[in-house]
Protein: DUF6311 domain-containing protein
Organism: Micromonospora coriariae
Amino acid sequence: MVPRVAESALAGPVASPTSAPAAARVDEETGSGVEAPGRTRRLWWTGWTGWTRRRQDLAVGALFLLAALWVTSRLWLDPAGRVASLYTGDPAQVQFFLAHSVRVVLHREYPFYTEQFNYPDGVNLMANTAVLALGIPMVPVTLLFGPAVSFVVLVTLGLAGTAMAWYTVLSRHLVRTPLAAAVGGWFCGFSPAMLSHASWHPNIISQFLLPFIVWRVLALTRSHRPVRDGVLLALLVTAQAFINEEILLFTAMACGVFLLAVLAQEPARWSAAWRPLAAGLAACALLAGALLAYPLYVQFAGPMAYHGLSDAVQDYGNDVAAFFAPGSPTLGGNQRANINLAPNYSEENAFFGWSLSLLAVGVVVWLRRNLIVRALAATGGFFAVLSLGERISWWDRELVTGPWQWLVHLPLLDAVVPTRFGLITSVVVGLLIALAVERAWALRPADRRTVRKLVVAGLAFALLPIAPMPLRMVSRPPVPEFITADRWRAYVGPDQTLVPVPVPSMGNTHGMRWAAATNLDFKIPGGYFLAPRNGNTGDPGRFGGRPSGVGQLLEEVATTGRTPKLDDRQRRRFMDELRHWRAAILVLPVRQQHVEPLRRTVEELVGPGRQELDVWVWDVRTLTDHSV
């Protein structure tokens, strides 16, 4: 029931959709159901199945879970031995953070900063999305089965949970028809943008709190107890901040733009809405601010804090043509065709395809008399434009300068990846689809059959090309037995590091998986993370810590297979770096690509090593001990 439920969020109290009579007639302006006295008609879904609301919810939830298992099926076959086919760094980073949550719970380790990687400088975890709100509940799974299993569990539940959360909010507060809520929730949980992030970013696809945050914000505009409702909103906001702050910022911006779009059309609503909204938001700001004050202080002013992302990431934008192409992980997707339309395959934040793009426009035109539809259209269009980045392009040809250029250096926005604004547009499209299905199922009997057929045909035509497919996976090297059998413990002390060869970096994250497999019982230098340039707190961010001579040398050998010649000056400089890291051993897997050139390079640096189980080991404690 679109106007009485959704628009009432800005107008006044309204009965719950579940308490409204089943009989309905059509509102002349909106076409949605309105009560019709004197008639009793069973809703079509209860007439066919006789299911209660709870059973309907369970059935829809089971469908979403099966879909999520289908999408992640190839990863479930071997969680520790498979990884996304293109970029392997993000899963290793997330697994490292999941292992950190184990240490927080079991060893009471400080949650917001760690020296377990990038030793001795450490890493500001609040500035690196350490997913504490996901990792801490997953501690039992991580302990029993390892962080790789926890990763695939989070991806599966992130997709299914987000879809179910949107279905729940839609079915209770926006539409009466379960089919409408299910289709809208389906798209919000399994859109091409969500599938794009699924292989790498469980923190981004875990959006199951966002529908409730959005609804609580809208409910504040008509609340009779705004302080209580503001407190509830603050708890949701705080939890989301420990999942992903960027998505929380997007949600706040989207709510603001939507409310402005509504009020611009009907300014009279403001007189009734501003008092409870202001009181509720003030209560939310006070409580959430108190709960998040210290973590945010660490994030922005603590050790290894950075201000703003690197220019390369700030310029990540969607190509206009990306909105008309199917996403790579979908039935109609084509990776080669999409290669120049997104920053990379993990950031395909548009990719609706021609059919869905046309359907979305058609829904807006069809339901243009509906206030909520117009406000949604304005919101989705606004963020679609922002997602194009600083330079708007068409098929990789620059056209004009985008409005993002004027916003990119503002506080908070300087840490945003603009292409991800497309995630907001995806949610808007899902809501428009739900409203279209609701409208079709609420028409007069004389018009209903034809319109329903057209809507179903349109949905099939639009959604089939972007139907989710199993995520592409490739095999990855196992964690060495030398690590899993705890043979490293004979060498590495609590204030020393194990140095994987090559040194962990954005492009070489296997060493991070080794540490995660032990729940971070040993420290490593380097790693994949965001930090201030050159390790100076407050500088702009970059991927990785201080430039490392040893790291760059070994990475070049691992990439090219060429063994360099080292002079005495280089050896002394590299030894100083190993001392700075307090290196105990260097470890090179025997199955590492270009293992022989790497072995010869390390031997030229620190002398002969020896093979132990499935790795080459160099014990350098006598060379790096500061007391010697």
Notes: Residues 1-6, 10-49 have pLDDT under 50 and may be disordered.
